[in-house]
Specification:
The protein is mostly helical. Helices cover about 75% and strands about 0% of the residues. The chain starts with a helix and ends in a 25-residue tail after the last helix.
């Protein structure tokens, strides 16, 4: 009488032998058949190209979405009164922090930080704070938003009195 464990062991052995045999066969074919190697390389290149194109398309879609969000925020407008600006700033920073901690909607989190940046009196100081506190994926999206807004002045050099072009003058004597 044949036991169940013997049947299971024989089945597992047969399957393992079949898998090992097919692996050895395809490895031998890969090593010796030039047409098979060419076909594998073509397939690999095609998959890599498709993945690259998809990544580029996703980047373009994300940039378009970011630009659209910035335009919508500008159309909505920003408060003009000092007290309203302060309240708006606090509200948007709190919302941005909450969204960035959740990690579900980085574009919306970056948009909240962008709106807070638009009403802050010295945006370059706030960007320094953002660099230290905001997660990198959200910060990258925020940088893209800042780049799409030419009205927002956040240059690294001062544009005030005594600064003619914003270029440092150290060592240029």
């Amino acid at each position: 009488m044949v036991q169940t464990s013997m049947i299971v062991a024989a089945s597992v052995g047969t399957v393992a032998t079949g898998l090992l045999g097919s692996a050895v066969y395809f490895d031998h074919k890969r090593r010796t058949d030039p047409n098979f190697r060419k076909q594998l390389k073509r397939e690999s290149r095609r998959q890599a190209r498709a993945a690259k194109e998809e990544a580029e398309a996703e980047t373009i879609r994300q940039k378009a979405s970011i630009k659209e969000k910035v335009v919508e925020a500008k159309e909505d407008g920003f408060p003009l009164d000092v007290e309203e600006r302060e309240a708006y700033f606090m509200q948007e920073v709190a919302r941005g922090e909450t969204l960035s901690q959740e990690g579900t909607d980085n574009i919306q989190a970056a948009l909240s930080f962008y709106k807070a940046l638009k009403v802050y009196p010295t945006p370059s100081d706030l960007i320094t704070i953002y660099d230290k506190t905001v997660p990198k994926p959200v910060l990258d999206i925020l940088a893209e938003m800042i780049a799409t807004d030419p009205e927002l002045k956040v240059g690294p050099f001062g544009h005030g009195p005594g600064s003619d072009s914003g270029m440092p003058t150290v060592g240029l004597d």
